[in-house]
Amino acid sequence: MPGILSKITAFARSPQGRRLTQQAKRAASDPRKRAEAKRALSRLRGRR
What pTM does this model have? Predict the structure, then answer.
């Protein structure tokens, strides 16, 4: 039974995984999306 890491690697190499990777890279380069993600992370960290 393959481990979780090998499953993630296989998904990242699939066409759908590549598409999602490119989408994430585009979102990360957008300043508004980056600020939005930063706010979400700070909210999550504040709940601990």
Answer: 0.58
